[in-house]
Amino acid sequence: PLEYEDHYSEKYAYMPRTFFIGDHAQMFPHMRNRVYLEEIRQSGVVNKRSNSFVLSGVNVTELMKAVGVKVSFQEVDFVFNGKKCKHQTPIAQVESLRSIKDMIRSGVHAIDFNGVIIQNGLNAPQSQANQTNRIASGEEIPTNLILTARRQYNLPENENLVVYCNFNQLYKIDIEVMKMWVHILKRVPNSVLWLLKFPAAGEANIFGNAKALGLENANQRIIMSNVAPKEEHVRRGVIADICLDTPLCNGHTTGMDILWSGIPMVSLAGESLASRVASSQLNALGLPELIAYTKEEYVNIAARLGSDPDYLENIKAKVWLTRESSSLFSCRQYASDLEDLYYTMWYRYANNQPPDHLS
């Protein structure tokens, strides 16, 4: 913000939309589509909020047309920028998910599921004879449907369970952050917090501090997973519900990753650039309601998302749709905005005008 100009000797140049950009639309186009998988229940009731088993792929229609698959939709109506919007997530109901669960348990790379090849998201196949895994690194777009499931990461599959997550390195988590996170978990008892062993040496500190702050059953409420290759790292966000950003140093690329997976992120805006990146990303998406300016607001926003299922699905739908239409993932728009700033800088120089803030 300009009120902090005395902190720096340089002049500010403000990007009109966002100062952070990601090329996720080009690297991970298979994440434009998702299908929830669920077993058909005797009651006939469909769990409209079930994201325990999620399929991603460039083309999901073959699964929708497969024999034995009954398709329904999770429908969310919401208002965005004054316009009424509707979002639908397809739910593929099948008689049994046993073969899917067996694939996960045995670690098989892929299975034929009702005539459709489904790939195990934990075992992206090597795509070249030289052993280079271009799919895992994000250099090659997968052609098969890829399964991401909560049980792959030892996450509970309880119905209506809320999964909070943060995939940043653990050094970004200080005691003040842990206090807020533990407070959120206490206010939302049907929730867990999913973190990475990044590094593994920090895992003991996470559990030790959580217990010291009064979190009961900390070993069940906090789930730790290993660091994953890029494609899996981005894709596995689809089985989470809410990302809790780290205030002191926000998720930068990590924030882009979770937003591209369609998951809302709650952030507490600070005074430095590193503590305002996520706020810039959320503003670009048109979701300022996820930005907090006090610790209390941060906890309240996160707790409301975890406690109000309809509100959560409303926000999720906004993230899923606006990631495609906003400037946040538009490299072309970012390049154009940056060129405009460079032109303005040159114009001032060419006209013997001193450097000044540009907005």
Overview of the structural elements:
The chain has helices spanning 24-27, 61-64, 98-106, 175-187, 203-212, 218-221, 230-235, 253-260, 277-285, 295-307, 309-325, 331-350; strands spanning 34-39, 53-56, 70-80, 83-94, 110-113, 116-120, 145-149, 162-165, 191-196, 222-225, 242-244, 265-268, 291-292. With 359 residues, it is α/β, with parallel strands linked by helices. Strands 3-4-1-2-7-6-5 form a seven-stranded mixed β-sheet, with helices on both faces. The protein has a six-stranded parallel β-sheet with strand order 10-9-8-11-12-13, with helices on both faces. Strand 5 (110-113) and strand 6 (116-120) form a beta hairpin. The model is unreliable at 125-132 (pLDDT under 50).
How is the secondary structure organized here?
Elements: H1 24-27, E1 34-39, E2 53-56, H2 61-64, E3 70-80, E4 83-94, H3 98-106, E5 110-113, E6 116-120, E7 145-149, E8 162-165, H4 175-187, E9 191-196, H5 203-212, H6 218-221, E10 222-225, H7 230-235, E11 242-244, H8 253-260, E12 265-268, H9 277-285, E13 291-292, H10 295-307, H11 309-325, H12 331-350
Parallel strand pairs: 1-4, 6-7, 8-9, 8-11, 9-10, 11-12, 12-13
Antiparallel strand pairs: 1-2, 2-7, 3-4, 5-6
